[in-house]
Design a protein that fits this description.
- By secondary structure, this protein is of the alpha+beta class.
- 28% of the residues lie in helices and 21% in strands.
- It contains ten helices and twelve strands.
- An eight-stranded mixed beta sheet has the order 3-2-6-7-8-9-1-10.
Length: 338
Amino acid sequence: MGYRMDQAGINRVFNGLAKEYRLFAPKCFEYEGAFSDTDSIHYGEVQTIEEIELMKKSNHSFKDALLPISETLFYFTEDEVKVADAPAKGALLFLRSCDLHALKRLDAIYLQNGEKDFYYKRLRDKIKIVLIGCEQAFESCFCVDMNTNRSENYDLSLDTIDGEYYLNCQFREWDMLLKENALEETIVMPKHVTETVTKVHVPDNLTAAVAASTMWDEYDARCIACGRCNFSCPTCTCYTMQDIFYTDNGKVGERRRVQASCMVDGFTDVAGGGSYRKKHGQRMRFKTLHKMLDFKQRFGYQMCVGCGRCDDVCPEYISFSNIVNRLDSATQEVSKNE
């Protein structure tokens, strides 16, 4: 069912949904950008449509709203362990199509990759999705080539036309709330991107043999191992564990799950002082093949969704889309040397 609304109407809908859900959407945080006097667009809790940034791409993905940078899993004392309480409310996430596809990748890792992750599942079960319509791709996006430019698995879609809001509802329990606040019922089809400026091609014959290519060596100098590409990526799922001991009693504390990055120093440290992939090019190789080869071999589709955020945030202007496009020549290079 589709609805046309004005600003007042959609805010009344938000107010109604807020009784059961916390609303997380891309919003502008003034003067919180990477450079002085610049803004940052990332996910935060909103109450009104005016707070949501619908015209620009967020610098960071929705991931932090679902997987906090630091999440307490449980508390412990000398005698017992208590699992941390889950949020009382569910969450309503406003996602573009690429990020909605990224959510599918997170589900695969946390729910279909062995035992289901208890902490992820209890949050995931209480999430609803609002699809933000995308009429035109941003400069670094390559979602069309990754087949993530269209989505149908949403609860509500949101498009703006001439200052009004058009919503398509697939969650029948919201129909009454939407109908009461709509200007009219109408047919609504979410907008989607059909072409991107940035294009990529993943070789059909890509294998792990490409790891022997010399292309990775150049990133030893270019990459500074800051990890910004991982932390901005909506499909990166690596984390580490931290035990925090309270100062009043060294035997009481909490265990936290903290986001980690395969690109930063210390990620591959092991007991006994060992460490692997010390060269930055080796880390770039690992990340690229995980995104474009390993994940697909296991789940049948690419891990990368083509959002382009890694290209946007890299301080060394390393383009992941360019790396993907070089895999074809790298594959040919390895074949010649065999």
